[in-house]
Design brief:
Blueprint lengths: L4 E6 L5 H15 L2 E6 L10 H17 L4 E5 L7 H9 L4 E6 L5 H12 L5 E5 L10 E5 L4 H16 L2 E8 L6 H15 L3 E7 L4 H12 L3 E5 L13 H9 L5 E4 L1
Parallel strand pairs: 1-2, 1-4, 2-3, 4-5, 6-7, 6-9, 7-8, 9-10
Antiparallel strand pairs: 5-10
Helix pairs in contact: 3-4
């Protein structure tokens, strides 16, 4: 199992570098085709086309230098909303990538909502402060035995298979399920795929996200994979508690989400 096609949103302007790090690194590592959507998520920045043109030129040069097949699309390439644009391309990709500069504002949340809940594909959130610069050597999987968690695991599988180790972690007391037994079984499934995996249980403490972030730091995990949940009403911007906390604060490390 591999990644053949990546769709990434690239935010032009100051701080362009971190937005390019994960898309270029993973496209190069997997010899994947990269579709880059280069536009400012905040429509108030639309009056700066020169920043967009500069970002396109910079990305084209970087992709050529690294031998990456790259398709570049700016805002003039489409006419509908930014969330649907990203979602539309992700539906025919193996992975989406979005770089976050701190906690997401309203425009970034539109992108996130479309990418996570409108595609059926995994989305990698790469924090600008610590972008994913290579396939992770150690992956932490947040396991609660939900369908979203299952999809996150399988979406992350190409990265898991390249990692030195994967930690399947369950936060105790989070849900009325029996994730422990299935978590151990998940490590066996990953082993059959060729991955090295082990199971952890974590006390909930101050919350699910702090517990996962602390475990990632303790064990040297470079990426967290977890399921994302959106509650009713349909099309609302309300997310499950761990997902909402993460979006409110911004991801503490590269995060792969699937719904």
């Amino acid at each position: 199992m591999t990644i053949t096609t990546i769709t990434a949103h690239i935010e032009p302007g100051a701080g362009l570098g971190p937005s390019l790090t994960a898309p270029l690194a993973l496209a190069e590592a997997f010899a994947a085709h990269l579709t880059a959507l280069v536009f400012a998520a905040d429509t108030a920045q639309d009056a700066q086309p020169e920043a967009e043109e500069a970002a396109v030129a910079h990305l084209r040069e970087a992709a050529t230098r690294r031998g990456i097949a790259c398709e570049l699309r700016d805002r003039g390439s489409y006419a509908h909303g930014i969330g649907e644009v990203l979602a539309d391309h992700m539906r025919v990709s193996d992975l989406g990538i979005l770089t976050l500069r701190g906690a997401p504002g309203p425009a970034a949340r539109m992108l996130l909502s479309g990418a996570i809940f409108g595609t059926g594909r995994p989305l990698l959130l790469s924090p600008a402060a610590a972008p994913l610069a290579a396939p992770p050597r150690r992956v932490l999987v947040a396991w609660d035995a939900t369908p979203a968690a299952v999809r996150a695991v399988h979406g992350a599988l190409p990265l898991i298979l390249r990692a030195e180790e994967t930690l399947v972690a369950t936060v105790t007391g989070d849900k009325e399920v029996r994730p422990g037994q299935s978590g151990i079984a998940l490590t066996r499934l990953l082993a059959r795929h060729g991955a090295t995996a082990r199971f952890l249980t974590l006390p909930q403490g101050a919350g699910v996200l702090p517990a996962l972030a602390a475990a990632a730091m303790e064990h040297g995990a470079e990426m967290l994979a977890m399921g994302a949940v959106r509650h009713a009403p349909l099309h609302s911007m309300l997310f499950g508690s761990a997902t909402r906390d993460l979006l409110d604060r911004g991801p503490p490390l590269p995060l792969l989400l699937a719904a």
